[in-house]
Amino acid sequence: IEGVSNTGTVSLLLRPRKDDPATIAQEVTELGMNTNVVAIFNTAIKAWHVAEKVWGNELARQRLFVGQDKMSERQRVANFQAFVANPPGNGLCGSPAIEAGIDFAASYLVIEETYADSFLQRFGRSARSGQDAIVLCYSSALYDMLKKGKLKCAYARQEFLNLVRQTLPLKEPRNLLTGLAAYP
After folding, report:
1. Which of 2, 33, 96, 99 is a Cys-bridge partner for 108, taking CB atoms 3.0 to 4.6 Å apart?
2. How far is CA 160 from CA 61, 96, 124, 168, 177, in A?
3. Predicted confidence (pLDDT) per residue in 73-92, tens digit
4. Which among 86, 42, 82, 30 has a CA at the least distance from the CA of 60?
């Protein structure tokens, strides 16, 4: 995947969605993606369990980045700064709290399928500042398309982002209040 902005090339590894943190951690480790990596999961508890399986309990505490309701801002900032200071010797595992507005240079990104808007935010964390990246993506929707031969081998960045918008569900508010309709 190539982009027109100052982004590098992304190599995408697709896997079907997995819920077992131990299985994810094993695959991340086998692929050598346990340092210089940022992993973003749908829940803080899943992020914690994967981090714990990849790095052990003590290092997991130093490499976690989850929402303020689960972790103090001071600890989140300290963990993030430690990662930014030395990505090749570090890793960061987080919840959706890290998917938007956080810039980091990591060679590896691990993400899981979610709503299209969140997925695009997560994916946008890869190949920053002209650096190439490998993304390990757990997405049953994209994996099924791959197995059916419906994905190309290479995409321009915008073309891939459009594919994601068309493939993954949207988190739309228009159905949110349908149960509150007033009747005459």
Report:
1. 33
2. 34, 21, 11, 12, 32
3. 999 999 999 998 999 999 99
4. 82
